[in-house]
TrEMBL record:
InterPro entries: HATPase_C_sf (IPR036890), NatK-like_C (IPR032834). This is Signal transduction histidine kinase regulating citrate/malate metabolism. Keywords: Coiled coil, Kinase, Transferase. Residues 139-239 form the Sensor histidine kinase NatK-like C-terminal domain. It comes from Lachnoclostridium phytofermentans (strain ATCC 700394 / DSM 18823 / ISDg) (Clostridium phytofermentans). One of its GO terms (molecular function) is kinase activity. Transmembrane segments: none annotated. It comes from the Bacteria. Residues 17-51 form a coiled coil. Pfam families: HATPase_c_5.
Length: 242
């Protein structure tokens, strides 16, 4: 009888220990998720602050350029004014354009990556409608867009033709996101499952696509990864909010 009670007691202890271990693992996972999201937010804040500073500098420079042009015109020196204006326009062609979408999250994500593309010498084209993506939390929408664009930027660095296109539009009852980057050779032909080929930090490098799929699934969306006419495409669609 005593032995039977001892066995029951041991089983109870084992069960309790298993529950505590599972709870500990869940808490550790939640902590890591919160820490990751906090780090992402801090990173985005730094990039947004940098974007605002660059915009402020651009406005300041333009004011000075206008003063110089006004001085030339006041002196009726039209030729010098035209020459100076031509140089200013040429310089502006090498400066990224701020994209206004009407959505604060989209603005910060897209313009942050637009600036990075400019610094990397990557052409960045965008077609953006004012969509709310109201069913998605702002953190998840940020993580989704950042991972999509990071993947495209990283892939474009290895190409001679460096070009990214992003389209965010409403289509047939869905809010859709399409990110495309030009590729000279097929990726899916030799890497259908898109497994990382990097030897360092492979866990981190593979995490981006895992997170993208997880967010799409969480909000009952659809994802399609395909290639078309020299472009690597990632298409995502979420049902329109009621």
């Amino acid at each position: 009888m005593i032995g039977g009670k001892k066995n029951i007691w041991n089983q109870t202890l084992d069960h309790t220990a298993s529950e505590l271990l599972a709870e500990k693992m869940e808490l550790e996972y939640q902590y890591e998720e919160l820490l990751r999201k906090y780090e992402e937010q801090q990173y985005q804040k730094e990039k947004i602050d940098q974007l605002h500073e660059n915009t402020r500098r651009l406005k300041h420079d333009m004011k000075n350029h206008m003063l110089v042009l006004a001085n030339y015109l006041n002196q009726e020196n039209v030729y010098e004014a035209k020459q100076y204006l031509s140089k200013v326009l040429d310089k502006l062609n090498h400066i990224y354009t701020y994209i206004e979408t009407g959505n604060a999250v989209l603005n910060s994500c897209i313009n942050t990556k637009l600036e990075m593309a400019h610094q990397m010498g990557i052409t960045f084209k965008a077609e953006i409608e004012n969509l709310s993506f109201s069913k998605l939390g702002s953190i998840d929408l940020t993580a989704l867009l950042m991972n999509l664009l990071d993947n495209a930027l990283e892939a474009s660095q290895r190409e001679e033709r460096k070009e990214i296109q992003i389209q965010i539009i409403k289509k047939r009852g869905y809010e859709t996101i399409l990110v495309k980057n030009f590729i000279s050779n097929s990726v899916l032909q030799y890497n259908k499952d898109l497994k990382t080929t990097k030897t360092q930090n492979s866990k981190e490098h593979g995490y981006g696509l895992v997170q993208i799929r997880s967010i799409v699934e969480m909000y009952h969306g659809m994802i399609d990864i395909y290639e078309e006419e020299g472009w690597f495409c990632c298409f995502i669609a979420f049902p329109l909010s009621d």
